[in-house]
Amino acid sequence: MAGSQWELPPELCCRPMAFVALTGLDVVYNAVHRAIWDAFCANRRADRVPISFKVLPGDHEYPKCRTKRTSYEWYIPKGILKTGWMNKHLNLVPALVVLFYELDWDDPQWKEKQSECATKVEIVRTSLQGRNTKVAVVLIQKKTPLPPGEDLVASERAQALCHACDLSGKSLFVLPHTDHLVGYIIRLENAFYEHAQTYYYTEIRRVKSHKEFLNKTTHQLLFVRHQFKIAFFSELKQDTQNALKYYRTAYSLVHELRSHETNMLEIKTMAGFINYKICRLCFQHNTPLDAIAQFRKHIDLCKKKIGSAELAFEHSAWMSKQFQSFGELFDEAIKLGLTAIQTQNPGFYYQQAACYSQDRKQLAQQLCQVSNDHIAYQTHYPSPDPLDTQSAGLDFYGQRPWRQGQQSIDPPDAEKEKTGILALQIKERDVPHSELIIALLSNAVAQFKKYKCPRMKSHLMVQMGEEYYHAKDYTKALKLLDYVMCDYRTERWWGLLTAILTTALRCAYLMASIKDYVIYCMELLGRASTLKEEQKSRIERNLIKVLTNEVPDAEPECDPSSVTAARSLWNDRMALAGSNELTIEVQDYIPFIQCKAKFQSPSFHVDQPVQLQVFLRADCPHPVSFSKLAVSLSNQEYNQWCVAEWSGQEAMSLLPGKTTCYNFSFVAKTEDVGKKIEMTGIEVMLGGDSGRCVFVSWRGAGGDAASAHEALQASRCSRRWGRNIEARQELDWDSLTMQHSTMIISRVPKISVQLSHQPPALTNEMYCIKLTVQSQEEAMAKDVKLTAGLKPGQDANLGQTTHVTLDGSKFCDDSAPSLLPDVPLGELKPGEKLEKCVFVKCVSTGPRVFLFHVAYGIDTTVEGRQIMCKCHKDETVTIETLVPFEVSVKFVSTKFEPLDRVSVDIPFLLMTDIVSSSPWPLLLTSSSLQLLTVTSNTPQLQSQLQEVVLQTGECASECFCLRCPPQTSINNTVATGQYLISWRRNSSSPDSPLIQTIVSLPHVVLEMVPLYIHADLPSFGRVRESLPVRYHIENRTALVQEVEMAVEPSDAFMFSGLKQPQGRQLDDASIAAA
Amino acid sequence: MNTNMAVCIAVIAKENYPLYIRSVPTQNELKFHYTVHTSLDVVEEKISAVGKALGDQRELYLGLLYPTEDYKMFRKLHNSFTDVMCNPFHNPGDTIQSKAFDGIVSGMMVQTA
User: Fold this and answer.
1) DSSP states along A399-428
2) Sequence-ordered list of residues with C-beta below 8 angstroms from that of A985, at least 6 positions apart, any chain
3) Average pLDDT, stretch A995-1010?
4) pLDDT tier for residue A108 given thresholds of 50, 70 and 90
5) Rounded to whole angstroms, how far apart are CA atoms A943 and A979?
6) Distance (Å, rounded) from C-alpha A933 to C-alpha A968?
7) Nearest to B38 among A456, A492, A499 (CB)
8) What does the pLDDT look like over A950-997, one tens digit per residue?
9) For A140, A250, A341, A365, which has the most beta carbons within 10 A of its beta carbon?
10) Is the CB of residue A825 less than 8 Å from the CB of residue A784?
């Protein structure tokens, strides 16, 4: 991997953990040892202490410790940090070596075993000569130990063992091999952890103690190295707060170093390492702002430290890596719960990393070119390889392989330096820059997608596409560019769209992808393109070449070698016969030909020709000719009428910026009456049979991705300048509106339908509506049909209370429908008149809408074609229905006093009043009573209302004398019967049926009277003549009653006869008194 | 010379398309267009946040997108923009073609020799 030079070493990026070596365990053959090892290392959860364990053989050789320096006086450091140092302390030099030994307290061979153990400890100690590494012993025992203090043998032998092995009591452990292994292990490792911490503490003290020997002139590098080491040991000790502090000091120290071109890389490398550590710890401490601030500072300090100009690409590579690793740290912190925001997310760092990688690529292209002024051999990789180091790698981070350890400011060996640089430049050539850039960009895209930055995402995808283009992967480039193009199109950023299209066109050219090439050409020629005229000119020429099956000229700024390859590809394409047709849907683009179509009217009568117009306009710099224009309609049978084809004489061409209009018309079919005709598509054929046909196709009535907005702007404009627009000579393209569908409606009827009637209608009458149909047609109206009645869609109750009939001679019953459909009326000759009466009976009051629909067929010719049209004429009328009259009925006594109850066998009167509320005179023909319970007091009940005419508001009254027969049983209220009135409108013909209105008479309360008195009085008296008065007193009971009468004299009369007669009233007899 | 000088000034319609965009001619114009376009992500987010908070609707200045911007500059530009909009011959939504506006913008841009 070529990028690996810039990768951060894994030992830097990992989380440092205390290193503890376990010896004396045979994990392969000993099951007990295996179980112990597993308990240490398998399934370590986060709550266990951070230790990295390793099983090592008892006689393992640990890295030798260099003899301690007693003075730094003559010491000149060769570099900042050795490449092996971090790994050494993470994986090679343990903080603690634990010796496992199987020994029970009561072992019969205790003495021998004790000395064997001591020997083993000694071996480990020897191997660790000079290190502060602690040694501990764990006895693996079969027996469960007794509680401390109880096993005297144990404590005695433990003491002896410690003595033999030269161990402190704290370093000897017992591990009973029983059920609770994991529990014991956790206790053990906690103890180990404490030992390890002590070890790292002493290491920190040791490194710190060097400081007093250092001087600032010769030992600058050591200041950095020591601070770094202290910080790293602090991390191993899990003291991250102090580690951060020491790293920060180390960071400022590294920038205090005297920098020159030769050590710039080393300084930057170390600064990068320390910065990484600081940022990592800041994120770990949940202080992301500190991390960001540190990173910004780091970048500010380092971005100008380019170093050798000939290796400037290295600086960009390093910068890119800085951003990338910070992005990764940021991203990792987010995964652990940190929240990022739109303006501060890892995407920006990946993007910046990509940006520096792009710089690197550019610099590499400039600096690593196989340049002509160099002599041939110099461009070969130098031998011996200046980058080869005898050992596996470098001794110090960030140094040059050809001058390792050299820290003097003296100019280096010029020749060596030259070959070294050349070797690096040659190596850089092989770096897959585009791959690196694309990987970084795609990381950034993922982040910006997450943080709601759609435009940033699109922008990065454009960059990815461009990078793929540079990497010559045109398919992928087009895929990406195509994907984002529509975002820029819908947002109307024409400058950016044009730039993307230009790259896309280059890709399409280099791939010889004809369809893509044509599409991009069309859009680059269109009005959204911001290209200059001469560029458009060139593109149009190329497009015409493709249409005539010629190879187009290469796009500018294409790689010459790729152009050659592309040319042969094009030649192959053009040589291929067949498949020369291409359909391009342009609705979602902004093509160079604009199309708008409209039906002349939103509806056409079936006997009119349907007219439509197609407007075309070209935005390209030169005229463009086409060979065919076709409109597709929803009913494909009409398509044949909507084609314009190049006939060979008149060229069909569009002039730049001019609108051309094509008119089409056709006759609709009568089956399509009531249907919509839609334009489903419009096609313009470019090219011709000789070359290549390109069908530019629009859905519906044309328009493209930009036309909706243009129309909106135009409408805003015309709203203000409404008067101007009509005065304008030329057709305004933008305000041209599309009309993509039209309705075919029936022919206009040439008949008149008149209604004559006398509203309002009266309830229950047979209301007559006279319909007069007169034909103004020039031909015979055939099959005339009438549909009359209640207009559908009104209150459902009206349907039940409205009845329509044609027969006015008798009353219709409830079975008559509310709407009479399709009543045949025969034929109507031109000018003929037809009359028809329709009768309507409304049972309830209120307004109703009646519909009179006259339909007929007629033969007619449209543009020479004979068609049979169906026409109809509708007439509606709203009719109010009223009650004709109000009837009131009351019972009164023979003295016309209102009665609230009726006495049996005593005559009383029934008074009826009929008040007309009809606006038309009513003729009451008769009335009658149908009595129940009561009977007439007169022998013959005769109506007093025969043939009475009532005007509006007039009242007709009748009076009947009635009596309740004596046999009637007395039970409170009784029904008295009905009052029947026969009537009709006075204006209606005598033979029209009479309407009978029935009014129920009120119920009355019956009562029995014991005594009935009535007087016979003459109707008048004469002065000074006697006036005979006769009182009849009737006893209505079955008992004899005592009656006493007194006559009160009046001043106007003189009396004769008994004044105070007394008598016994016999039952059921009457006495007459005079 | 005033330190607060712009390298690119753009006026964007509420539908997010440019009504006016001008950058210093010495640098890559396309790059500025992309920068302005991508910054609309932040503008959009800010506008939606304003809508949510139902804050002062009269406050037109959204605040800093990046800490280099200047309120005074916005006010000056906005005043000139208002003048353009008040022109009865200007159709809102059309790109801005005004000499006066051009002049104001030129005054705010980094002068290049």
Assistant:
1) --GGGTT----SPP-HHHHHHHHHHHHHHH
2) A758, A762, A765, A918, A920, A921, A922, A923
3) 85
4) confident
5) 11
6) 8
7) A456
8) 898 899 888 888 888 876 666 677 888 899 899 988 888 887 888 888
9) A250
10) yes
Tell me the pTM. 0.74
Instruction: Provide residues of A within 8 Å CB-CB of chain B.
Output: 342-343, 452-456, 459, 462, 488, 491-493, 495-496, 499, 709, 712-713, 716-717, 720
A99 close to A117: Cβ distance less than 8 angstroms: yes
Q: For residue A696, give the nearest of A578, A537, A526 by alpha carbon.
A: A526
Question: What are A1024's two structure tokens?
Answer: 């000074």
- Which helix (H) or strand (E) element contains residue A781? strand A781-790
Per the model's pLDDT, the better-predicted residue between A470 and A807 turns out to be: A470
Query: Measuring CA to CA, which residue among A969, A914, A903 is closest to residue A937?
Result: A903
Choose from B91, B94, B95 for mutation: most chain A CBs within 10 A: B91
Instruction: Please state, in angstroms and rounded to a whole number, the distance separating the CA atoms of residues A927 and A909.
Output: 16
Count of CB atoms within 10 A of residue A742's CB? 22
Show Cβ contacts of residue A759 under 8 Å, excluding neighbours closer than 6 positions.
Answer: A879, A880
The per-residue DSSP string of chain B comes to: --S--BSEEEEE-TTS-EEEEEE-TTS-HHHHHHHHHHHHHHHHHHHHHHHHHT--TT------SSTT--HHHHHHHHHHHHHHHH-TT--BTBPP--HHHHHHHHHHBPP--
Complex ipTM tops 0.85:
no
In one-letter notation, the amino acid at residue A315 is H
Put simply, whether B17 touches A (Cβ < 8 Å) is yes
Contact B41 A456 (CB under 8 A): yes
The pLDDT of residue A250 is above 90: yes
Question: How far B71 CA sits from the closest chain A CA (Å)?
Answer: 20
- Residue A520 reports pLDDT greater than 90: yes
Reference A356, options A282, A444, A422, A254; nearest CA is: A444
Amino acid occupying residue A316 = S
Chain position carrying tokens 């079919």: A669
Q: What is the pLDDT of residue A722?
A: 55
Is the predicted pLDDT of residue A327 greater than 70, yes or no? yes
Cα(A933)–Cα(B29) distance, rounded to whole angstroms? 111
Is A789:A817 a contact under the CB 8 Å cutoff?
A: yes
CA B60 to chain CA centroid, Å, is 12
% helix, strand, coil for chain A, step of 5: 35, 25, 35
Query: One-letter amino acid identity for A846?
Result: G
* pLDDT tens digits, one per residue of A588-625: 999 999 999 999 999 999 888 999 999 999 999 999 98
pLDDT, position A406 = 76
Question: In angstroms, rounded to a whole number, what is the distance separating the alpha carbons of residues A454 and A1059?
Answer: 124
Q: Which two tokens stand for residue A673?
A: 């009456």
Count interface pairs A-B at CB distance under 8 A: 56
Asked, as a colleague might, if the bond just before A966 is cis with ω within 30 of 0, I would say no
Mutate to test the interface with B, among A455, A718, A724 (most CBs of B within 10 A): A455
| Residues A699/A675, Cβ–Cβ less than 8 Å | no
Contacts of A104 (CB under 8 A, 6+ apart): A139, A141, A142, A143
Query: Rounded CA gap, A125 and A139, in Å?
Result: 18
Mean pLDDT of A1046-1072: 65
Q: Which residues of A touch B42 (CB under 8 A)?
A: 342-343, 453
Element (H, E) at A12: helix A10-13
Q: Is A5 helix (H, G, I), strand (E, B) or coil?
A: helix
Beta carbons within 10 angstroms of residue A984's beta carbon: 20
Judge whether A270 and A397 are in contact, CB under 8 Å: yes
Which chain A residue lies closest to B22 (C-alpha atoms)?
A495
Pairwise CA distance, residues A20 & A135, whole Å: 10
Contact A455 B45 (CB under 8 A): no
